[in-house]
Amino acid sequence: MRVFGLIWLWCVPFIAMSQQTITSTIWHDGQEREYILYVPAAYTGMDAVPLVLNFHGYGSNAFEQMWYGDFRAIADTANFLIVHPLGTLYNGTAHFNVGGWTLGSTTDDVGFTAALIDSLSAQYSIDQDRIYSTGMSNGGFMSFVLACQLSDRITAIASVTGSMTPETYNTCDPQHPMPVLQIHGTADLTVPYSGALWTKPIQDVLDFWVDVNNCSSIPNVTDLPNIAPQDGSTVQRRLYEEGDNGATVAHFIVTGGGHTWPGTIFGSAGTNQDINASLEIWRFFSRYTKSGLSTATHPAPQPELTITISPNPARGQIRITQLPDERLPYQWMTSTGQTLQSGILQPIEDLLELNTPGSGYYLLRIGHQSYPILMTE
Asked: What integer pLDDT is reported at residue 17 of this predicted model?
């Protein structure tokens, strides 16, 4: 899933300070492997915190996934690290080796993930019982591979528009009950909901993990409110409970949804806006440790700001209204993350004159939330 063009960040010094975005590398299996780490504002290093692995889709990259499947605002208050690994090239395209349709790839992505966890654990205070994996498309496939082949390090997984290859499905051998969350659209034309020769049907994947976790085979079903009828899709949550060690299998089936990340600010056709996939994934992850249900209390994510930005598309100037009665920081950035200007917004309402080098999409970050703005000449 490509959202931006292929964009790379320059490496920055590795300094253990809060709220940083750090591009770095490790050597594994004779290759220099790149990743982007997000250190949240709440991180102090005094207490061990969770780690979320966030894998990009086939042909995408770490930077795109950091924005497209964005957990940063959640991490800032719930206090967990996010690492966005970068895949290697397979037939000229960035990928993670999940077998099946990547058969022929020689990249050891399971070993790379283990080495990456080790490297980060040596530099940061990471709770080894609370390491989670998620991803988009190929990244969802990769998360299932880790659930099967690296379960001694992974606590729970979530897949958005991914599935299991037949090879992963047939050789899967998790070492403990594995909570699994699957988010998938019925109109996904890239990874078909009903499966294909190279990808298992989503219901087969759910049934597999229900069996592994010894969950009830009859799910609790909830139709979620259709709060964004204009997106052309609806969501139903199916929850298979009563698994060993409290493990569950959860499924958000997006009827009419495409090969997209629900709730992303980069919404395209087929993108559901009734749920925020990132928020639902963290809510799911936060319930579990490797030994079972979590008894710890963790800060809740901050509620989203309620603001109005107009006009959008814009030409040089935008008005921001319905701000809370406080002064909030903002950044005006290019789609590649380059900051063009920053400052403090006035309470309730403010008018911004924006530095805009040319037409196209830009990002306005207010507090911990980002909004895409289309600028015209």
From this structure: 43
> Which residues does residue 236 pair with via DSSP β-bridges, in sequence order?
223, 253
Q: What is the pLDDT of residues 69-100, one digit of tens each?
A: 999 989 988 999 999 999 999 999 999 999 99
Comparing C-alpha atoms, which of 286, 313, 326 is closest to residue 376? 313
Pairing of strands 328-334, 339-345: antiparallel
**Token match 């089936």: residue?**
253
Residue matched to tokens 């005006």 = 332
pTM reported for the whole predicted model: 0.81
C-alpha distance from residue 105 to each of 88, 162, 293 (Å): 10, 18, 37
CA dist list (Å): 286 to 75, 130, 142: 11, 8, 20
pLDDT tens, position by position, 106-131: 999 999 999 999 999 999 999 999 99
Q: Spell out the domains of the chain, with CATH numbers in brackets.
A: 20-293 (3.40.50.1820), 308-375 (2.60.40.10)
Instruction: Please tell me the total number of residues recorded for the chain in this structure.
Output: 377
